[in-house]
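Example 3.2
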Amino acid sequence: MDSELFDISVVIDRFKKASTSEDDVLLEHYIEAFKEILKFFNAMGSIFGFVSSDIKTKIGIIEEFRLNKEVSDKFLSVKSMMDYEMSAELLQKKDYVSGCRTLLRLHRGLDFTRNFLRKLAELNPDDKTSDACKVSYQDTLAPYHPFLIRKGANLAMYALPTRDVLLTKVCKDVSLSVKALPEMLQYTDTVYDRIQALYKLNDLLALP
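Structure, written as tokens:
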């Protein structure tokens, strides 16, 4: 069904709305964008099952915070979430599921996504996508994954098809997706860079 396919225009719209607040990112729109990105991984099948499952879980955790009336006002943006969890010393609590830790995992997944899509944009229609995917994975997610997951991911990537076959499998409209990709990457980079800066400013990039 088309509703299950990846729509780049939705990601553009949501990340654009997420970055309207200067130097901050609104979590509502960030999560909506990630729900669309999840479709990209789901459509690729079992190759990225480990990524899809992790993203879905992390989205659910952030949404629970946002729907919890007791703390929902603390989870309006990345800044407000960080300020709340740091000031309340929640990051030191062992039994607390942290929004900051959860978002950091999504943030790393976004880094892989933007790197992979940027490399796809540079390929010819009939070029294989496996090398682009492997390089993107090694540069982003691989350092945070245990050996067995890294090994399995690298083996699975050998089965990736050519650029246009892959895009046909995951996207609603290949030609429109290729045209819209630069704009999507522009907004994705803006959101990524802002969140990266906030984690660095608060010394949270190494959260376990």
